Structures are given as structure tokens and as C-alpha cells.
């Protein structure tokens, strides 16, 4: 690309491939094919010679694997991006600090806000909302502030008992706000289960894996993921829109990776010698500066 340091990629695409090329991708690495320009144009300092162009064209036409050419199946560059979930684990505590956090949650704050237009109605509704806020806080304060629950069901049972004693019936958004304020993530806590007894996913621990198209998702998961996070699972509700299979299909062509050549580092002694020479130069220059 002109006037940038971005490498140039040339794509040859056609809907009329000969039989031998169907379902195949040929990569040609021409990174070493260049000559210096007589006059550079910004960052553009190299160009292909006539011989280089002929070599690249011949390599493309031959369609053979070699030092500068590699042949792949289309699927070699494809993958399914699967969503990896981990269970939600929370502890709960009705401590003064956590109860105070409830006041910062929007759903709880909205109790004391009104959408009425009449001023008297607004005042009455806001007053009732503030009273309900205080009643909720007072009910929570009756629970043991030192008790740390690591089982949500056990905490929920005691929470319901506290609200029943206070004769409070909470709407779902407020109940959710209470649970949010009084909970913290805890890897040692019991897994939170939904109404069907299925583990709930923790959105903060959600991760993704790119599974090569030629690999079975479950075999890949068992080999690459489960040994590191035994409680993880694949979210099978995330599917590709076109084929309806688990995981969304994507493609990536890491050309540099396929043509990578290992270059051994310089000998340690040579590097140490160079560093020593640089240190001497720095000392010399400092002496010149300070006189």
C-alpha cells in the first residue's frame, strides 16, 4: 500500500477454476522478490523486476508446492468460533457494606422516582418509594451480617424469610438488585443453578476458541480446554447462521506463519561483546559532555 509500511498482498480470484484447483488455495511467498527503486516514493522503496514477475507468474501457473509455493484445502483456513462458558459461583452476605451498595443500583434508585405529571402524585409516589427503600434496607439488616453464604439457594431461603417477616413483596427487578448488591464472585462457592437445575454461565468468565474446520469440536474441547478448566462447557446455542451448526464459521490466512523459517539467534558471546562496546561508547560520550 502506497506510503505505508503495510505489506502488499495480491489476490487472484475466479469462479472458473480448473478441476485441479477447485477447493484449493495456493499461497505464493514473494517477500524476497524485490529490487531497490532508483527513487523511492515515501515508504515505497522496493519494486518487482521483470524477472520477479515472470517467476511469480510461472509459480502460479505450475500450481506445485515448493519453497515459495504451498497448496492448501479451503478448509485449512477455516474455523468454528465456539463460545466457552464457565459456571457462575457467588457468595452472599447481608453486611452493612453490601446493603449500602444496593443504594447505587438503578432499579433500587428508581423506586423513589415518579413518572407522574401531577406534582402531588409525584411527591406521594416518591415518598412511598423512599419508604419502601428504607423498609427493604431494614429487612436486610435483620439478617446475620457476619454469615457468609456460599450456596445461593440457602441464602435465598433466609432472604425470603426476612422479607416475609417484614411483610414485603418485591418485584423481580428489585429482587435482582438485592441479589446483585449482596453477592460477590467466589471460586470456592457452590455453582448457581437455574430453575431446571442447569449451571448458570458467568458472563465475565466467557471465552472463545477457534476450532479448525477439519477438527471435531468436542474432541478439540476435550483436548485443549477441559484439562485447564474442567468445569467449562460449550454454549451450543451459539450457531452459524448458514449451516446451523455449533460455532460461527470464520476464515484466516496466516501467510507468514506458513512460510516461517527459524533463524537461530546470534551467539551469546557476540551479543555480550557488542553490549560491552556500546557501554564503552556511552561512558566516552558522557565524559565528553561533563568535561
Describe the structure.
This protein has nine helices and ten strands. With 291 residues, the chain is an alpha+beta fold. The strands form four sheets. Strands 5, 8, 9 and 10 form a four-stranded antiparallel sheet that branches. Strand 2 and strand 3 form a beta hairpin. The model has no long low-confidence stretch (mean pLDDT 93).
Supply database-style keywords.
291 residues, alpha+beta, two-stranded antiparallel sheet, 9 helices, 10 strands, elongated
What oligomeric arrangement do these chains adopt? single chain
Report the radius of gyration as a whole number of Å.
33 Å
Q: Helical content, roughly?
A: 25-40%
Mean pLDDT: 93
Q: What is the strand content? A: 15-25%
Sheet bearing the most strands, described?
4 strands, antiparallel
Q: Which structural category fits the helices and strands?
A: alpha+beta
Distance N to C terminus? 49 Å
General form = elongated
Spans where pLDDT lies below 50 across 5 or more residues? none
Number of strands: 10
Task: Please give the count of helices.
Answer: 9
The helix/strand order is EEEHEEEHHHHHEEHEEHH
